[in-house]
Amino acid sequence: MASVLIALGGNIGDVRDTFRKAISNICGMTQAALIARSSDYATPPVGGVPQDDYVNAAIEIETDLDPHALLFTMHRIEQKFGRNRASETRWGPRGIDLDMIAYDDVVIAKPELTLPHPRAHQRAFVLVPLAEIAPQRVIAGKTVDEWLKVARTDGITKLPDVE
């Protein structure tokens, strides 16, 4: 079984409920085991498009699916919750965004999939939740904790647990 880190984000609708349902779908559709789930964090948007703050989280799963099959399934789950990657604004608002951050220690550089995620180590909104569940996981040559020490975490706040 492969250990996979997945980042979740969104800022349209009841994002936290969407996360709950999406995680259930990920585990069900991939026959994966949920190993860990971070808290949810409110994070400022990036990319310059005026929009509401995001909610971000991270999960670790174990799955037998290969990386490409997992990515395909994650995109199907995004579509199920209303995301249309072809018609959306880059870095714009969305109800759900699922990004595969790392798949074991696999390195892939293809147009449809790059592992580890090429910008994860530059994004505090990914690093903060990841540090909660996988602080010693190595991404792009350093641990999540090491990357987080040099990241700008201004405006990122942990949200209270959902009852």
Describe this structure in words.
The chain has about 160 residues and is α+β, with helices and mostly antiparallel strands. The chain is built from four helices and ten strands, in the order E-H-E-E-E-H-E-E-E-H-E-E-H-E. The chain has a single domain, classed as Alpha-Beta Plaits. About 35% of the residues are buried.
Descriptive keywords:
163 residues, Alpha-Beta Plaits, two-stranded antiparallel sheet, globular
What secondary-structure arrangement, pairings included, does this model have?
Elements: E1 2-10, H1 15-30, E2 33-37, E3 41-43, E4 54-63, H2 67-80, E5 97-103, E6 108-110, E7 113-115, H3 124-133, E8 138-139, E9 142-143, H4 144-149, E10 157-158
Mean pLDDT: 94
Give the domain tally.
1
CATH class: Alpha Beta
What's the helix count? 4
Per DSSP E runs of 2 or more residues, the count of β-strands stands at 10
What would CATH call the architecture? 2-Layer Sandwich
CATH topology: the name is Alpha-Beta Plaits
Q: Helical residue percent?
A: 25-40%
Ranges with pLDDT <50 over ≥5 residues?
A: none
Order of helices and strands: EHEEEHEEEHEEHE
Fourth-tier CATH superfamily name: 7,8-Dihydro-6-hydroxymethylpterin-pyrophosphokinase HPPK
> N-to-C terminal Cα separation, in Å?
32 Å
**Inertia-based shape:** globular
Radius of gyration: 15 Å
User: Strand content of the residues, in percent?
Assistant: 25-35%
Class by alpha and beta content: alpha+beta
Largest sheet features: 6 strands, antiparallel
